[in-house]
Amino acid sequence: MRRRTLIASGLGVAVLGGVAAAAVLGTEGGGVAGEAAAATPATVAVERGDLVDTVTVGGTLGHGTHRPVVNAAAGTLTALPAAGAVVRRGAHLYEVDREPVVLMYAPKPMHRTLRYGVPGGADVRHLEANLRALGHKVDVDERFDPATVAAVRAWQKDAGLPVTGEVTRAQVVFLPGEVRVREPVAAVGAAARPGQTVLTVTGTRPVVTVALDAGRQNLVGKGAPVKVELPGEVVVAGKIAKVGTVAKTDEDGGATVDVEVTMDDLSTTRGLDQAPVSVELRGRTRRDVLSVPIEALLALRAGGYGLEVVEGVAVRTIPVTVGVFASGRVEVSGTGLREGVLVGVPAP
Fold this sequence. Notes:
CATH class of the largest domain: Mainly Alpha
Number of strands: 24
Low-confidence stretches: 1-24, 26-38
CATH topology of the largest domain: Muramoyl-pentapeptide Carboxypeptidase, domain 1
Structural class: mainly beta
Order of helices and strands: EHEEEEEEEEHHEEEEEEEEEEEEEEE
CATH superfamily of the largest domain: PGBD-like superfamily/PGBD
Helix content: 10-25%
Shape: elongated
Strand order of the largest sheet: 4-14-18-16-15-19
C-alpha cells in the first residue's frame, strides 16, 4: 500500500471550533447513530501515513541583527558609506580628517594599540592574519616582531594612512567579517568623538528574523528545515541558523526569542529588504497514523468528535479521538476505523 507524508498547516483548536459550529450530532449519551441517511453523503477514504505538525509564523526578511561601529578617532567625519554599501576586509568604513578607518576581520573588537614589543595575544594574531590576507608577508604567530612592523608599514602606505609601524583603534575596526551598512548614524561634517557610534552594520547574507513566542521554542533547533514564503507567494527552503538564548518582552507584554533563518536559494530575495514573510516551522511528527480531511469531523452533542461512516446506502456515526492537525487533515482513531473506510464530507 502506498504511503503518504502530509505536511502540517498549523491548524488546531480554532478549526475545531469551526467544525463544532458547522455540525453537531449525537444520540443519547453521545453514542453511535445507526440510522440510514436519506441521501448518501459525499465521501472520502480514511488514509494512513505520516503527519507533521507545523506552525506558520511571521518574520522579516533583512540581513540579521545589526551592530554598532564605534569610533575611536577625534576630529571631523569627512566620509561615510551609504546605506546598503558592502564593506570588505581592507576597505574604508569611514574617514576622520580625511584619514580612513579600515575594516579588518576578528571575532572581538580591538582594545589596545598594537606596536613593536607589545605582549603577544590573539589580537596580534588577528592583525597578522589580516595583513597576510591583504598580501603582506608576515608570520601569523601572536608576536609583534620586526617582520610585523614591516608588514604594518607596507599596509599603512597602501591604505593611505600615516606610516608609523603601529596600529591604533583610530585606524582599524575589528568586525567578524564583511558587513553591509544598515544606516549611517552620524553625518559628514559632524565632530567625531571617541566612543561615538558612527554606523550600524549587519551581515551581507539575507536572512529572515522571527520574534518567536518563547513558549514555542520546542519548534526550533539549529539546522532544522523550514519553508519561507516570500512576497509574491514564492516559497523557498531554508533552515534555522540561530536561536536566541535571551527572551525579550514584546509590545503586548509577551516573551519572545529571536530566531534567524537562512534560505537555500537567494536569487528570489534580490531587491527585498525589511519585507514581511511567513515561516513554516516543523513540529512533532506522527508516524503511520490514520487521517481524514478536517471537514469530515462532526462535533457530537454529548461532547467530543465523530465521523459518518458510509457503507453502501447506510450511514452511521462513530466517535473518534483526534490528534495532530496537518495540511487540512486531522489524525483520527476509533473502534472499527481503518484505512480505506469511507467517511462523509460536505458536498463540494
